[in-house]
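Raw record, unedited: AraC family transcriptional regulator
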Amino acid sequence: MKYYRWGFNNQTYNDQFYISSGGFEKPHPKHSYGPMGRSGYMIHCITGGHGIFKSNGITYHLKEGDMFYIEPHKTTYMEADEKDPWTFYWVRFVGNLVPKYMNRINLSSKNAVMNQNDLPTVFQDVIDIVEYSKNTGPRDFYYQSKMLNILNSLQLHYPKPSLHNNIPTATDIYDRALRYISNNYEEQISVHDLVKYLNIDRSYLFRIFKKYSHTNPQDFITDYRLRKASEMLKSKENNIEYVGLSCGFVSYQSFFRFFKKKYGISPSDYKKKYLN
């Protein structure tokens, strides 16, 4: 039996979330790989036959419909069955965001085996990525969309247990508040909106901001808007009124008053200072 292997290498590189390669393999009987570590994250989907996969000292006897996950730099071993060697699709993904994404999924070298019956979309999406690579033209967005769908399915099926029994700490609340402000500062958000979004007592929110930012939530929102405005004013394309309204101030007068109070000069003088 001849070893058949086909694969792709993604030429559209990015250092954040990169589906680097994938393929389909039909190895000969008893063909093995390892024991060794890999440099990226990998998911294998077995489409036929049988084989052995070893991870974290555990030996798994796998068959059609099974899947296995490989972490970077974890020793694994693969071996095709002697009488009925497996066939499988695989994808490899790396990038600065991947460890953060995988940290949200309760999947590791200690529980590395999955099944198509539990995760049918994951199984099919891996196959779809490899098969789509045979097309011409841009493919990277397709790879990423499918891989994100895979990670979403894995997170739903393997949720990470909460370390705090779902009770958020003050740090958790502060981080959520900062994200809310950064995502909505252009709108007319207020402390009331923040309290409603976080579902906490107003006085508790004030204590949290006093602890972590040494100010109150309203002043923090205003200061955040002013920092964004000061960045926009450095561009000659942005007029002053546009900048103020784009950063969530209700009027030019309001923007002027807050800006001069913080920076000691008017928005127009600030703009001239950086454009001259």
